[in-house]
Amino acid sequence: MIALLRREMLLAARHPADTLAAVLFFLLVTALFPFGVGPAPDTLARLAPGALIAAALLAALLPLDRLFGAEAEDGSLDQLLLSGLSGAQIAGAKAVAHWLTTGGPLLLAAPVAGAMLNLPVEAWPVAMLALGLATLFLSLLGTAGAALTLGARRGGVLLPLLVLPLAIPAVIFGAAAIEAAAGAGTPRPFLLLLGALVAAALPLAPLAAGAALRAD
Amino acid sequence: MLEASDVAVLRGERVIFSGLRLTVSPGEAVVLTGANGAGKSTLLRVLAGLVGLAEGRVLWNGEDALADRAAHAARLRYLAHADALKPGLSVAENLQFWARQWGGDIPAALEAVGLAPLAELPARMLSAGQKRRLALARLALAPCPIWLLDEPSVGLDAASIARLGALLRRHRAAGGLVVAATHVPLPLDGAREHRLDGLPAGVPA
Hints:
The structure holds 2 protein chains of 2 kinds. By secondary structure, chain A is mainly α. Chain A is built from 10 helices and no strands.
């Protein structure tokens, strides 16, 4: 499984455009808000938590439909299924690799996006933590979604329709955590709830994805 | 010993084949022939455990091979139509994951298919025949009892076919068995031919 993760990271390093595209997409979506709602700092700060989480989840969705699609097209998926790894192990490695190549870099871009939305500096650490957990949740859900829609016609369209509704709890708790950190509240309970979502998805999503991969 | 007993495979409503029986002993080679669409590739995927069976069983030494898929996968190499290469990785890097998974020496495997001088080249620079040779290099990595080969010689030049012949001889001499689907003669001595005739008689389509 570690070997597969190393292969994924090597592939990502050879194709940095995918990661860069997700980061730029994230920054551009957050940059649209000041244009849409006007540059008033107070309004932007009110919008910032929700806008950050929503933009990050959309950006993380971008590379998902190629997650298994590219492997299936060049015959690698059959070979991976025969490599001695179980379907769940393959999916687990894929989910972690997806997070490392999109969710992680998005965290690094979060302060820039936060500044554009006038998010108070003291809320940045919590914002990065909330974004990290929310994108990890999306990577796990998305891997299951990508495995399920593999081979479906228009799978690329189906995937967000399948995954985004399930990601709503992550948006609610993530935005609430950032809002609490920016205001007077305590973000801890919301972060714990986000953590609980990730903890539940961590074993379940790879198992579901693995079963979907095996089912041809 | 690899055995398919009364295997039937459906694709949608269509019967690809049914009542298929095939036995391959260690050291033996079976060449699957038949018209396009007769089910040669599907049979290889059945033996690899990649396709679900409608009826029948695949046996390894008398026991159900697909009961433990990971164990079955560990004893076979499947060379598919697609070469399963990553164009962005170098020739040697393409083998790295498999060498970690199965063991085996990458330079020796590349030497066996005549790609050693190109080890550092990105796989996207390879010609079709060279890509096929890189896919074959996976077979040369570590010994394994079952080889399932789908048109292994497609795109290969004469020298590469000779190298494939050497690989196959070494594999069979070590007690390995080969099932290969092909339209052209393969460098296999004393191979048994198994002809797939498309739809068997008496089966409603």
